[in-house]
Here is the input.
Amino acid sequence: MNFLCPRDSGQYCDATVGVGGHARAIIERSAPQGRVIGIDRDAEVLNLARQNLASYGDRVRLVHAPFSKIRSVLEQALALPLDGCIADLGVSSVQLDQPERGFSFRRSGPLDMRMDRSQGATAADLLQRVDEEELARVLHDLGEERFARKIARAVIHARESGELTSTGALAGLVARSVPRREAKDPATRVFQALRIAVNDELGELDRFLQDAPGCLRPGGRLVVIAFHSLEDRMVKRRLKALAAGDAAAPDAPRFQILTKHVITASESEVARNPRARSAKLRAAERLPS
Ligand SMILES: C[S@@+](CC[C@H](N)C(=O)[O-])C[C@H]1O[C@@H](n2cnc3c(N)ncnc32)[C@H](O)[C@@H]1O
Here is the structure.
């Protein structure tokens, strides 16, 4: 909130509204007239946000959409230009904690992993169609998994013998395929890689980073929280390009970076909320043109 600086009568977008924690903070800090348009591609999570934010009436509007479509969502809602936009990437605790969504390796469920359950291929579909080489690449590139080849081989083998029926079966298979050297569950990186692939999270972020800056008015602020080094690198590069003046797009908006160094959660925050340990926040402000 210190970077977003919500103010009365401002117009904000929470591009990953989740259950509405950030949206609530924005709406309270921008009282009495500030507005928030909240976007999420997960209709179930959005329903929780709707309940949690109901008391703010028409100061909050919620839209079921991927944030790659931010410009058209805001155009249709007549919510341009923005005074601030925040994206808090990845999955929410609500999604992780529901085994039936298939994001959890601790509690078994179907191999789904789609944030938007109304469309697209599930993790099970992906695991059915990939070959060993492609799967190893996904696990290595998106999960930074050292044993990607070994795990990919074991997955293809298990798929052929019909063993890959649940997240629990996949987690067990991963645990048996790699030497256990660290405290972290060996399935962590594999599940992260599959989730990013199933939801095309890097493609989504790339399109968001292209379009969101132009949705802000001069003085408007963009805040992005990433949980994965690949995503954080994309954010850092894009903000740097916007600050330097993008040679490829001379009329692109100019920005000033507000976070010289990436912001991470304090020890006490991580103690309260261990899932914040890998969060990396960057922010920038649009300059007058
Ligand atoms: C870390 S949670 C955000 C939690 C939120 N800040 C809150 O206070 O409750 C990330 C949310 O972003 C959503 N999400 C992830 N990628 C998305 C995308 N490409 N488009 C729209 N929503 C997305 C997820 O469905 C999830 O609800």
